[in-house]
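Field notebook, page 94. I keep forgetting to write these up properly, so this time I am using the form the group agreed on. The chain and the ligand, zinc ion, are recorded exactly as supplied. Prediction of the bound pose follows.
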Amino acid sequence: MNVIQLLMIHIVEPMTIKPSDKRKKPYTQLGIRRFKCFRKGCNNQAIHQWSICSDGNVQRPICLECDIILNKIVLQFMEFDNVDELIERYIKEN
Ligand SMILES: [Zn+2]
């Protein structure tokens, strides 16, 4: 992310715009940061997005903390043998 993109994030006033309940096309890396995390009770700024088939594949803005939790839940559900290792690597990359 360059300096202009960082400035734009602040100009757009993150967290004041509501995300669409219909958007299936992924937001850009910059665009997703305009929103709060979709998880109820979480007011963090979104930096990732998730779509869920049973939710109509709508793009839902997600903050880093919730994204990591979701990743861990999915890895555990799928019974990966190296959940902690994968999550630690993912945290370092983000
Ligand atoms: Zn969150």
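OBSERVATIONS:
- The radius of gyration is 14 Å.
- The CA atoms of residues 54 and 60 lie 13 Å apart.
FOLLOW-UP: compare against the apo run.
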